[in-house]
Amino acid sequence: MSPRQYKTDLSLLAVLGLLFFYPSLMIYFVNDNASHILNAVDNLQNFSHHYFRPMAILSLVLDYQIWGMTPFGYHLTNLILHTLVTFLVYALAVHFIAERFFAFAAALLFLLHPIHSLPIFWISGRTDTLCALFYLVSLVSFLWYRKNPWPILYLGMLVSFILALLTKEMAFSLPIVLIVYVIIFTQGNWRTRIANSLKAALPFLLIAIAFLLLRFLFSPETALANKDHQFNGILPLVKNLAAYCGLLVIPGGHVAIAGFLKANPLAFIILAVGALAIFGIALRWIYRSPSLLFFTAFVFISLLPVLRLLMRWYLYIPSVGFCLALAFLLNRLWETRRFSLGKISGAVVVLLIISGIYGYFLMTEQQRWLKSGEMARQQSGAIAETIAEASLDSCLILNINAEIEEVPIMNYGLGGFIRHRLADDHDYHQPVYFHPIAFISWQAAADTNALVIEEQSPRRFMLSLENSSSFFTFPNDSILYINRGNIKRGQQVNTQYYDITISSLDARREVNRIDLHISSKLPLLIYRNGQMTLHSAIPEE
After folding, report:
1. Which residue of 64, 162, 368, 513 pairs with 464 in a disulfide if CB–CB is 3.0 to 4.6 A?
2. What is the domain extent for residue 183?
3. Measured on CA atoms in the order 355, 361, 367, 373, is the torsion positive or negative?
4. 457: buried, middle or exposed (CB in 10 Å: 19+, 13-18, 0-12)?
5. Contact yes or no for 422/390 (Cβ under 8 A)
């Protein structure tokens, strides 16, 4: 391809990205965004933190110097990062198959894949985007260096790998990716291939080992994983792998699908076994093409560091391999020329259809994030206004909008979020302590009016979501929150301020009704119909 074609394709990708993602620049702070930004300088110096990701934190520090607490600037940075990673996917594709259609298809599919919504729309989710940027710079530099052993490429691939490690732990998979690449694309017997692969990846392996030893030295408890990401056996890993593959292949409807599969675990087993059988059959065909084999291996290898926990944003880097593999199949269709609509190749038609489906689900997800941001703005503003007007220094908050259709609202970082609104909107700087009681996971926008709150006495309440698909969660109780599948009716959540009794569960074993007994004299804030009510909640004598 000519330099002019490169520039044309990259310019088109940039314009498409801006058109699709421009609304995301208007998303307000959600969840722990404000806390991460305001605490960025302190976290940058804290090696013993659960996550040591100084490059991601440094990006927030730099944004803060430019934008202050204006959400637009942080979302603009996220969009720029995603666009740069898309360019790198294009460059990576060109290395394997120097076909313009293949490279553009791979980059376009990556640009619009709906699974990327969270790393793009969530300011705190840029960790994956930034890690992918350094990860792919290192990988592309490695591939170019094998063709042209220039010192600048050698230095670039190692420095980029170090920066990727300083951004997120997923970068530890890169040396294995390089080893597999050399094994697949090197001639000779297996012994020669393995020896060559280890030699080529040796600098990366040494850097990874040194970085791991450094983590053990400063924070041995969290060197391999934080306390919530511990190994729980092989079966959960297989289950997560199947779920990850499903999230990559199926572009949307994940909330509804997850709800159905959780309520019908046998269906999940049947689908997982069926998918595994299909993949086993296809593996013989995949093995015949070195490029397709590498793209497939890339997906699974890059997932290795995160299989212990199922989070959609972990798929940002693995999706590179998936998009390259899908573009490879489309390129095969392009080369055969067997199917066409007039003068338009069938491969172009299929690419447009898939891109249209991706774009639809992406825009739908973007609207959820805009709604989530607006809900976060309204509730945080109502809480801050009530606290400022009553000059409170401590309070209970009965109900918090935690998420909507798995898009975060105010699930974590509540304290920092409210303190930011108090200082920014009301010039209220005195310390305030919050004790949230029940978080609500809204499963549909129509559910947001379904909450029923009955005050049975001055210190007893009943909260119900039984007429909806939504449910309550309790992030303040980490054991109960992580192991939600083990919740039982009648189970209690006891604190020094209140006691919760779980009185009803839905078919998914999620909590949809609770009884609450408040034992504290702290003021109680109740949020409903967009309004915040200050309730004394003084216990009976």
Report:
1. 513
2. 3-223+233-336
3. negative
4. exposed
5. no
